[in-house]
Structure formats: structure tokens, C-alpha cells
Amino acid sequence: MHIFDSIILGIVQGLTEFLPISSSGHLIIARDILGWNSSNSLSFDAVLQLATALALVVYFWKDIFRLIKVFFALIFRKTVEHKDTVLIFAIIAGTIPALILGLFLEKYMETIFRSAGLVALVLIIGSIVMYFAEKFAQKNKDLNIKKGFWIGCFQCLALVPGFSRSGATISGGLFLGLNREDAARFSFLLSIPIILGSGLKKLLDLFQSGFVLDSGISLLIASITAFVVGILAIGFLMKYLKKHSLNIFIWYRVILAILVLAFIYLV
Predict the structure, then answer these.
(1) Which of 242, 194, 185, 225 lies closest to 16 in space, CA to CA?
(2) Would you list the DSSP string of 87-129?
(3) 150 and 189 in contact (C-beta within 8 Å)?
(4) pLDDT in the model for residue 267
(5) Across residues 234-256, what is the average pLDDT?
(6) What is the per-residue pLDDT for 213?
(7) CB count in 10 Å sphere of residue 4
(8) Is 206 in contact with 43 (CB distance < 8 Å)?
């Protein structure tokens, strides 16, 4: 892969991993249109997800450090704030559904889920979910462990490229009564274990296959690009959702889906 191609994929991953428009869907579309597909494309994309997971860790390092301290305080039975305890167990509960379903669907993610046509369809379905989340969701309710689990179930929708992890989990948070900013913050914190785990596993697979040695420079450049762009995208979305709805992303997804379907069937 050329350096330019690596930078483009890094930008696509870093920008779309956190905006509710689907990073995996955009990477599949970009590869199909530009002819960048390879047998290791899913593993390459997973390593880029690892880079954006590191962006999450850097951006939310204060929250993560606080939760680690709370976790050990709970182990040693020290007094901690109730909301921090709820947040930790909500993340744990929300991680379980995607972990189990992800292992079950892994073989399908390598094959039938890598289709631009499917991505276009799921982009539209995800837009409908986001629309109803904005229109009918109740606001300003507190997070609890049960809600964390159900938001984790929404995260499972992101296993199908085109849905968007942040779009699914933010929508789930809105349906369950969180405001946009709190839904986005929990969405990002919830995604860290899954993205880190998936990325590390695929990175190990790439080392074992020798792909990292053959494409190490391309992978490194794409990862650095995804990391930098990812931090900028997180900051943008957190500020944007304080005053704005998801509508602009809903319309973008619908328009992109129409363009992809037109390209597939008319070009």
C-alpha cells in the first residue's frame, strides 16, 4: 500500500470511528471504490481501530484514571462515590453482549459483512434508529447498570458495518433517557474495551501472518494518522452534541447510502 493510501485510510478511520457514520462502513466503501481490498483488510482495519482506541484513552485519561482508582478502592472495600461505582459496572455490563456476539459473528465479519451494498442498507437502517432516538427519547435521566447493559446491546448493532458504534450506543443512551453529552461520553468509554481487545487480537494475527513485517510502514503511518484525527474527532463531537442534534449525521448517512447504491448499480 502506498503512503498516500495509508494516510487516506487513517483519516477515514480516525474521523468516522467517533462520528456516528460508521468507520467500518466507510473503510469498506473506500476500499471497494478505490480498489484497495486485500486478504488482510479486516485485520488492517482492526489495527486502525486500536489506534483510535488509544486516542480515546488519551482524550479520556482523567476519567479512566479515576475509574481505575475507584475499581481498586472497591476491591479493598473503601468508600467511593456511587456514580463512579455505577459507571464501572455499567461499562462491564455493557461490554458483555458485544463480546459474546462478536466472537460468534467473527467468521461472518470476514466474509458476507464486507459488502458495500450491505453497508449502504445498514447506513439507512441506522439513520432510522438515530432519527427515532432523537424524536422520541426522554432526556436527563441518570445512568444505571441495567441501562449500561442495554446500551451494550445497542453496541452489538455496530458489528454490522454501516451501523456505527457511536451512532448505535448514543442512540441507545438517548432511548434510555441520557442527554446527548452523557450518552456520547458513556458511548466512548464503553467502546474502549471492545476496540482495544479487537485491535490487539488482530495485531497479534498480523504478526503471526508476517503481514506487519511486509506492511509495517503503511500500517504505522495509517495508525498515527488515525490516532491524531481521532482525538480531533472526539473533541469535535463532544462539543457539537452539547448544542446540536444528530440530524446532520442522519442526513449524511442517507445521502452516502444513496450515492453508494447508485455507484454499485448504475456505474
Answers:
(1) 225
(2) HHHHHHHHHHHHHHHHHHHHHHHTTTT--HHHHHHHHHHHHHH
(3) no
(4) 67
(5) 94
(6) 52
(7) 9
(8) yes
Buried b (16+ CB within 10 A) or exposed e, 163-194: bbbbbbbbbbbbbbbbbbbbbbbbbbbbbbbb
In angstroms, the CA 42 to CA 49 distance is 10
453496541: which residue's cell?
155
Where residue 210 falls among pLDDT bands split at 50, 70, 90? low
Q: What's the structural domain count of the chain? A: 1
Crossing angle between the packed helical segments 82-109 and 145-156, to the nearest 10 degrees: 20
Closest CA to 46 of 198, 194, 191: 198
Segment 38-57 shows an average pLDDT of 78
User: How far is Cα 216 from Cα 191, in angstroms, rounded to an integer?
Assistant: 26
The span from the CA of 183 to the CA of 173, in Å, is 5
Domain range spanning residue 117?
A: 3-266
Quote the pTM value: 0.89
At residue 29 the predicted structure's pLDDT band, cuts being 50, 70 and 90, is: confident
Give me 49's grid cell: 481501530
CB within 8 Å of 196: residues ≥ 6 apart: 50, 53
Contact 51, 230 (CB under 8 A): yes
Cα–Cα distance measured from residue 140 to residue 212, given in angstroms and rounded to the nearest whole number: 46
Place of cell 485510510: 9
User: 148 is written with which cell numbers?
Assistant: 449500561
DSSP state of 253: H
